[in-house]
Structure of S1 motif domain-containing protein:
Amino acid sequence: MRGTELPLNQTQKVRLQRALDKLESLSSKSNSNASVTVADSIPVNYEDGVLKGHGTSELNGEVVATVCGIVERVNKLVYVRALRSRYKPEVGDIIVGRVVEVAPKRWRIEINFSQDAVLMLSSMNLPDGIQRRRTALDELNMRSIFEENDVICAEVRGFQHDGLHLQARSQKYGKRSIAYSASLSSEEKEATFP
């Protein structure tokens, strides 16, 4: 189905060209038949009972791509891994997020996912480092640990009904300060600024 003309505006044409360029660079690194664009046919063996996954659809009896990306096959499942996609956390991932709310016994953390994450007071080390039961006094002092707009580092513990749960029970997790590294080249050091 390559060569299909789609009515695109200028912005869409630029985005399509960037995607095609990225696919071409990926194709040179791997199997050239593995990259597809929207409406490309994906060769499959129907006798094997193929399963259509994300990024695929059936059109006129053949499997076609619905996104630009790389064709992946896992046993009978065929799907297209998109070039750009939103972050999908998995258990064990270490994430950096921003505190958006301090609630009773928990902080709500924005991590650029479809849902906010939750860090429970019981899922982290207290500042004094002593392992003990959390008390009402600890709950009252939660803002002294993290407050709104603090940037924190934590590990994905699991998924619950109220969202993604995090844990920060190690010294490597916790509040992070935002720091920018500034370096100047030799020409920039010699330049004068008004």
